[in-house]
Write a structure and sequence with these properties.
With 485 residues, this protein is an alpha/beta fold. It has two domains: 218 residues, Rossmann fold; 172 residues, Gcn5-related N-acetyltransferase (GNAT) (Aminopeptidase, 3-Layer(aba) Sandwich). Helices cover 37% and strands 24% of the residues. It is built from 16 helices and 18 strands. Strand 11 and strand 12 form a beta hairpin. Helix 1 packs across helix 2. The longest helix has 31 residues. The protein is elongated and about 75 Å long.
Length: 485
């Protein structure tokens, strides 16, 4: 999986905290090291000195890696550990990313801070920019990590792997398996961690507080998360243990980022391997809210893996044009991050009754954060289709349906809404058939959702969907299940 590791250095002691990791990776995995120093345009006259510095770093890393191989009895894959030095002129983050792409690096290994030091930011500006843009994994070593921990970090290999049940989060597993294959050390100890987040019970209900059924449902969802996680982890543990790793599973309850931080701080881990995004999907940020908070809160090295986005052409197959009951045509397509303003406009065109029936609450506004969350999907564990009219700048969204996969993976929560003036034309039926076909393709057998008894339009919609429908009334709310598999 890894062949070339790019190691940016700026001449500071903080940046050189990565040195021990570079030596270990080269010696134990036979990787090529590329040390890169970026010289600012106004410092061109210092190029010879900077080149001498980075060449010396490459020589030292090569020698130490070879010494480590000899000490641990590791047979070298080549006569000399490959380590080279490069100097570029420009702005650090841009040059690091450009060089990584041009020279096909598989991994960027860098410190969280460099010459600017540790100020008020938890992650330095260069590391932050690299994280936001890099398409390859980034191994970040906290600048304030102890020298002892840095030297021993890879030798003990206690690895924490936070997962949330999504395919995106599981994209880290091949990286964990690769790291566990290092030579000259004992088995890796891998801890799989899942945090079950309690359901948020809305405080916007009127009357005498939250219905008992909502509290009961929240408790049942939490218990179900814990049960399904145990089965989910059992499958992954079998996979990892076949690769020679020792594993254990931990299931916690609470806010994911907070619990990951608390657990990591109270246990002796050498590395955290996690995806930059999980169930919340890939948005415009290079790392999602959970990974970002973990990264800025602990002093343990983190390998952040950015899940691959589907190629634009891969989503084109879901685009279609349908004929409505009045003979007009309507375009259906997957939602995209840039739809936030159009989705917000749809919300504010909905009548109060439609809003209440869809959200079970008399919402009057939707924050930008909420709108972005609805637009952010990973096109696997979460997917949304929109119905649109007009083209280009005149395009507007008049309907949307979304699913969100639930553990263990073959059931998904779904919700649908159509603008009032377009209801009764058959848009909802087309959206349900489209999302059901996509969900089946992704391995989902059932779609479920909550429907208020007064929402006769949706009840009629699911009844006429062509799928086997189940429903049960619990304290005034129907849980409707469509068997699509």
């Amino acid at each position: 999986m890894y062949k070339k590791v790019l190691v940016p250095l700026d001449g500071s002691e903080l940046a050189e905290t990565v040195f021990a990791y570079a030596k270990e990776l080269a010696g134990r995995m036979g990787l090529e090291l590329i040390f890169l120093h970026v010289c600012a345009p106004e410092e061109r006259e210092l190029l010879p000195m900077r080149r001498a510095y980075v060449e010396h770093a490459a020589d030292v890393a090569r020698c130490e890696a070879e010494e480590m191989q000899e000490k641990d009895g590791i047979k070298p894959e080549c006569e000399v550990v490959p380590a080279q030095a490069e100097v570029a002129v420009g702005y650090p983050a841009e040059e690091i990313l450009r060089y990584a792409e041009a020279h096909k690096a598989d991994l960027i290994l860098m410190a969280t801070h460099g010459r600017s030091g540790i100020k008020r930011w938890a992650v330095g500006s260069v590391a932050d920019k690299v994280l936001r843009t890099s398409q390859i994994p980034v191994w970040l070593v906290p600048a304030h990590a102890s020298v002892e921990a840095t030297r021993e970090g890879l030798a003990t290999r206690r690895i924490l792997v936070p997962l949330d049940g999504s395919k995106l989060a599981e994209s880290v597993l091949p990286h964990v398996e690769t790291l566990a294959g290092q030579r000259g050390i004992d088995k890796a100890e891998v801890t799989l961690l899942r945090v079950c987040k309690p359901s948020v019970i809305s405080f916007e209900y009127t009357g005498s507080g939250v219905p008992a059924s909502r509290k009961k449902q929240a408790d049942e969802e939490l218990a179900d998360c814990k049960r399904t996680t145990e089965r989910y982890f059992a499958r992954i543990r079998i996979r990892l243990e076949k690769g020679g790793m020792n594993t254990r599973a931990v299931v916690l309850e609470g806010e994911p980022a907070d619990e990951i931080i608390r657990h990591a701080a109270s246990n002796s881990y050498d590395l955290i391997v996690m995806a930059s995004h999980g169930r919340s999907g890939i948005s415009r940020w290079a790392y999602g809210s959970v990974a970002g908070k973990v990264l800025t809160s602990i002093a343990i090295p983190i390998l952040l893996v950015r899940p691959a986005k589907p190629a634009r052409g891969e989503l084109d197959k879901y685009r279609t044009t349908v004929k409505l009951r009045d003979g007009s045509l309507m375009r259906l397509r997957p939602i995209k991050c840039g739809d936030d303003k159009k989705l917000a406009a749809l919300f504010y065109r909905l009548s109060p009754d439609t809003v209440y029936l869809r959200f079970h609450s008399p919402l009057t506004q939707m924050s930008k954060k909420e709108v972005r969350r609805f637009c952010t999907v990973d096109y696997d564990d979460s997917f949304a289709m929109v119905a649109t009219t007009g083209e280009g700048r005149r395009e507007r969204i008049v309907g949307v349906i979304r699913y969100y996969r639930l553990p263990p993976g073959d059931v998904a929560e779904t919700g649908i809404v159509v603008e009032d003036s377009y209801q009764g034309k058959g848009i909802g039926g087309h959206l349900i058939k489209q999302i059901a076909a996509i969900a089946r393709e992704k391995g989902i057998r059932m779609l479920q959702g909550e429907v208020l008894p007064g929402n006769q339009a949706v009840m009629k919609l699911v009844k006429n969907s062509g799928f086997k429908v189940g429903r049960e009334l619990d304290s005034g709310v129907y849980r409707v299940i469509l068997h699509i598999g």
